[in-house]
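Hi R.,

As promised on Friday, here is the backbone we talked about, encoded as structure tokens. Could you run it through your design pipeline when you get a chance and send me back a sequence?
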């Protein structure tokens, strides 16, 4: 409840369940009711009413190379997926796009994991230095084996582009999974 009114929003789990604790990571939206409240007013010890975790954008097990591609705050579920997949030993390519290095969250954490786990390769694309993620760049950053599992999430334009690139680069469509941070829409 914010000022006596109920507001419902959805947030991805951005880490594995840890000692009975779930984590979400919230980007402050300019003028955003709930994200603004969470950043400015919610304090440790306050109570919020939650629904149990739900959704279909979940990591499927397997041994194929795993590619996680995110844009902006779309990084949140890929962090939990990365954490969940590491013990399997499968090759993981973690690709993140951000407006610039200052807007890049969780970099130190991902870099730290990459330093400890040789199976993890990470690639970053900053709009202000590299431009938007191109098909050529993605081609170079994907594993050579295109029989892979991909998960991608970001702003709608980003998702359209990534969906098209993956298709053109030979990734089977039923192995390219995505979710929307807003109303679902067609990517074709
Ligand atoms: C499956 C899913 C997972 C998600 N996971 C995450 C996550 O992990 N992390 C995360 O940060 N977000 C996530 N989101 C987005 C999140 O649910 C919220 O949409 C986001 O936090 C914005 O909510 P808000 O209440 O702050 O903004 P809102 O108050 O809903 O406003 C949204 C935007 O609309 C603008 N706006 C509002 N009212 C008006 C108006 N009258 N006129 C013009 N503009 C207006 C605001 O300025 C703001 O920019 C997820 C969404 C989905 C669907």
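Update: got your reply. Pasting your designed sequence below so it's all in one thread:
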């Amino acid at each position: 409840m914010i000022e006596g009114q109920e507001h419902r929003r959805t947030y991805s789990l951005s880490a594995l369940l840890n000692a009975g604790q779930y984590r979400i990571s919230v980007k402050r939206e300019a003028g955003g009711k709930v994200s603004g409240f969470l950043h400015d007013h919610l304090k440790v010890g306050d109570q919020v009413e939650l629904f149990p975790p739900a959704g279909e954008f979940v990591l499927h097990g397997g041994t194929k190379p795993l590619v996680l591609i995110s844009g902006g705050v779309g990084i949140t579920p890929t962090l939990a997926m990365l954490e969940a997949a590491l013990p399997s030993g499968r090759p993981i390519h973690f690709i993140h796009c951000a407006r610039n290095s200052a807007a890049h969250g969780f970099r130190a954490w991902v870099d730290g994991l990459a330093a400890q786990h040789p199976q993890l390769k990470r690639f970053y694309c900053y709009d202000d230095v590299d431009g938007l993620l191109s098909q050529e760049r993605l081609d170079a950053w994907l594993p050579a084996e295109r029989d892979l599992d991909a998960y991608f999430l970001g702003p709608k334009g980003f998702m359209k582009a990534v969906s098209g690139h993956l298709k053109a680069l030979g990734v089977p469509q039923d192995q390219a999974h995505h979710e929307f941070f807003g109303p679902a829409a067609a990517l074709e």
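One thing I noticed while checking it: The chain has two domains: 1-54, 66-178.

Thanks again,
M.
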